[in-house]
Automatic annotation (TrEMBL):
Stated family: Belongs to the NodC/HAS family.
Domain of life: Bacteria
Residues covered by the Glycosyltransferase 2-like domain: 132-300
Protein name: N-acetylglucosaminyltransferase
Keywords: Cell membrane, Glycosyltransferase, Membrane, Transferase, Transmembrane, Transmembrane helix
Source organism of this protein record: Gillisia limnaea (strain DSM 15749 / LMG 21470 / R-8282)
Transmembrane portions of the chain: 53-71, 91-115, 391-415, 421-441, 453-472
MF terms (GO), sorted A to Z: hyaluronan synthase activity
Amino acid sequence: MITEELTLASPATAKKISLNDTAQQKGNASRETEKEKVSDNYRKAIFTKRHHFTLAMTFLLLLGGAFSVYLLQPQFEEMNLSRMDTLGGMILLFLGVFLLLFRLSFLAYIARLFFRYKPVTSVKDEELPTSTVIVPAYNEGQLVYSTLLSLVNSDYPAEKLQLLAIDDGSKDDTWEWMKKAKEQLGDRVSIYQQPENQGKRHALYRGFNLATGEVFVTVDSDSIVEKDTLRNLVSPFVTNENCGAVAGNVRVLNNEKAIIPRMLNVSFVFSFEFIRSAQSVLGSVLCTPGALAAYRSKAVMNCLPEWINQTFMGQPTDIGEDRAMTNMILKQGFHVLFQRNAYVLTNIPEKFSSLHKMFTRWERSNVRENLMMSKFAFKPFRNGPKSGTRLLLLNQWMGMVTAYPLILIMLVLLISHPIMFISSTLLSILIFSSLPVFFYAKKYNISEAFWAYTYSIFYTFGLFWITPYAMATANRRGWLTRGLPEKK
């Protein structure tokens, strides 16, 4: 029995995970308590003067933009009329209307799917498959210790759970914390050390080859799982023989003080609980996140040689291992689902310099894997309906194809009509960001929901360049954010 109380190893967070309960304590009541505990973490996030000031400035900008559009209405009408007198203006107007209608139609389609979604209820202990959890780690320090303890504290039958932790040649004390976890947990965890840093894909590859479970679960080493996460995550493999992979529900761990994590927390909830829920109804979740994902072992082994030897433009691929694995499992004809009730809390960057590197890595992977998916998505890759999956891919391509034209138009309007452009952009943010605000407010709490507005302003004016830059540099290698953790 584990009886100590573990303080998470991020000074920016004050969360604590009680490890007083053993993995044998089960039941629906305890699982409901865990879900409430996750929600409470967000309700209790502290608002400082800086947070209040940031939100106040957000509303000042948005309301100021809306009022400016009202005052500048004659100028907007004059500009639109002048555009209709030229061929270029007519084309621009037609494309704008088309893109708006496409986005609204796609959003309505996703909303309809969302209301059909229901997570799979956890199955009984005797029905649960044997599972291997693989935790690759690089320069995570004490966080990997926290991750391993949270996994052992899961209410998953110990005799059905194999836990592997793999140090990918860390330059800090990650290996020492792994050894400490091993000393405390004994046979519950096996630890391995790569001879040198080879990348997350190679660490996972070693884990897959050592795994003995019917289901492989991957968890990032800076993430904390809830007590019922593992059993909820793997239950779809029991109830659906066509299920090849399952995506977990990712929340932000370090969301209490730094503004960037607080903004991304709301964004993650919308991205996972709304978008991935809809994708799950189609059996086509496009990416199983590295923070928490589960795979049918047979599906992994079928594509493992292709996955570890994957290249892009003649170079070995060292990013996007999660999206690549998802694509290869979809290609085999399996369904990829999302479990809203399988929570994981994960650390994300708190500074802009690290954030834009993470987003660049994600977008480069997105470019590469959209190309790969296009090679099989329009073929009979599986039985049953495929139009929904193809529409998801077309939406991905729409964002990429329009990236350069939109950024060019933005720069032209910013130079020629700066006030009109900024005010109309702020009004658009106020309108379209209200959906994630309402979504988060309904599920959790309204005060945190307002960060969706701040995030939209931040992304529109500070990170708009990520997609076009990632497209232009999609062949570049490198994790970008794999350095030693900052000392605070």
